[in-house]
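User: Can you predict the 3D structure for this chain?
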Amino acid sequence: MPVPPWRERKKTASVRRPLSYEQIVDAAMTVLDSEGVDAMSMRRVAQELGTGAASLYAHVQNKEELVDAVVDRVLATVEFPELTGDWRQDFTRFAYATREALIAHRDVAKALWGRVPTGPNAMRLSNEVFGILRRIGLPDQLAAWAGPLLFDYITADAHEGSLYAAAFGDADNGQQYFKGLGAYFASLPADRFPHVVELSEALTTGGGEERFAFGLDVLLTGLAAKAAASEALGDSGGDT
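Assistant: Here is the predicted structure, written as structure tokens:
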């Protein structure tokens, strides 16, 4: 039986549960991983949550603050290795753990460019890195510069890897590209570009892992030399 019009119940507005900061960051991570940092607007994140952008502003002021939160969420997954006393081994393990975390989430490395991460997890990792650099004898100013330099190297490698992954799709396509690039270098006029021609095979040899390990070794070797020179001059940093 139909309900008489005078007995129809009035529709009540559905009650929405208030958003939490963690829910917003979760949604931002979803957008970042599926669409990239450029798509991670306040409006798009709100859409992911089924609400309007205005409801996000009680927790985050703007996209920049949202990106900072996502970056720190990713850095929270980096576990600083237990120190062994071998500073090169300790830093190498940290570098690989950080690189793995950045590679696991699309565009996080890109988001880090032009940005100094200041969240609690970024500070936790920075503090550990600076501690290692000071303990090997780097003067404080060099330690303060070396930390960001090393982190920039890790970020750059992760970002380049994400660009290659987006461009080639799989390893076979990437190998074909570099094979063709090597052939192009070899075909250049030897009288104009003798070194490029002679190095054509070497220039395109080695995968991302080998090249990352090489670059990291060069940086750490340079820091070791700086530390040794500072110690010889009696210009040591703090030992905290």
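The chain has two domains: 21-60, 87-232. The chain is about 65% helix and 0% strand.
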